Amino acid sequence: MEYVTLNNGIHMPLEGFGVFQVPEAAVCEQAVSEALDVGYRLIDTAAAYFNEEAVGAAIRKSGIPREELFVTTKLWIQDAGYENAKKAFQTSLDKLGLDYLDLYLVHQPFNDYYGSWRAMEELYEQGKIRAIGVCNFYPERLADLCANVKITPAVNQVELHPFFAQAGALSTMKELGVQPQAWGPLAEGQHGIFTHPVLTQIGEKYGKSAAQVALRWNVQRGVVIIPKSVHRERMEENLNIWDFQLSQEDMTAIQTLDLGHSEIIDHSAAQTAQWLNGWKIHD
Question: Bridge-partner residues for 42, per DSSP?
Answer without folding.
Answer: 70
